[in-house]
Amino acid sequence: MPGIELKEVSYIRDKVIILDAVNLHLPRGKSTAVIGVSGSGKTSLLKVAAGLIPPDAGEVLYEEKNVQSLPPRREDEFRLKTGFCFQDAALWSNKSIYDNITLPIRYHFPATPAKELKERAESLLRQLGYRDSLHLRPAQLSTGEKKIVSFGRSVVNNPDILFLDDPLLSVDPHAGELITNYLKGMKARGTTIFLTSHDPRFLASFSDYIVVIEDGKIIDQGAQEELKRNRQPRTDEILTRYLEELGIYNDDILSLLDEGENPFAL
Question: What is the 3-state secondary structure (H, E, C) of 143-162?
Fold first, then answer.
């Protein structure tokens, strides 16, 4: 049984089709990466799969139940078991870093003692490389620090399913390494992960499955090894455009393009 499944999901914004009849399942305990150029629908796909925005057609299923139709108790259970790291951090600007990162704990476990909240927040952020005060507001942090806090908030309740929208974007190399190591630990414990990233090397080393999207449509999907053997010409074109957009000029295209077929190979 997949952790999350999308059936014929479409999403329309301002009369523009953002997702078009998407069918997708996220294998339990595996890491799935969605790849595409800017504007292809990656972030919207993550948000719809996480139940943050409702689809205009189709269903998002969690344990074979429509997420949009879950009764309040099951919806709370779904929220507890999922975490979302936003590309722009999406922190509460009028709340402290402490309030931001402990929000999921306080919502789901309101009786948690203040001392435990503080210890959990400090311990987690220390592991992720954040060394500043928990009393600061987001406006006092760098873009990278905000991203660290957003990631910490997404994992503070040890979710079963984790959604990551470009988790390493704007993060310095040291913090990026700490986040990557933390994610590897979660993956080893069986966490289901669905992510996007502007770092193809991170995707190649971390993802079990690849989903290729263009103009809101799934063009190709499967295990990395499967895509290597059976990839479609359109997949090659999209992956090449993806690397070109990132300004990467070597043969690292998620190991899906052979060196001889990559026009940017050195």
Answer: HHHHHHHHHHHHHCCCCCEE
CA dist 251 and 242 (Å) reads 13
Question: What is d(CA 105, CA 218) in angstroms, rounded to the nearest whole number?
Answer: 35
Is the pLDDT assigned to residue 202 strictly greater than 80? Answer: yes
Q: What is the pLDDT, as a whole number, of residue 193?
A: 97
pLDDT digits (tens, 9 = 90+) for 85-128: 999 999 999 999 999 999 999 999 999 999 999 999 999 999 99
CA–CA separation, 44 vs 65, rounded Å?
Answer: 21
Other beta carbons within 10 angstroms of residue 45's beta carbon come to 27
CA distance 22 to 10: 6
- Kindly provide the residue ranges of all beta strands, DSSP E only, lying in 81-160, ordered along the sequence: 82-85
Question: What is the amino acid identity at position 233?
Answer: P
Q: Enumerate domains of the chain plus CATH numbers.
A: 4-261 (3.40.50.300)
* CA 217 to mean position of chain CA atoms: 18
Total count of residues recorded for the chain = 266
Rounded to whole angstroms, the Cα distance separating 46 from 51 reads 9
Residue range 33-77, pLDDT digits in tens: 999 888 899 999 999 999 999 999 999 999 889 999 999 999 999
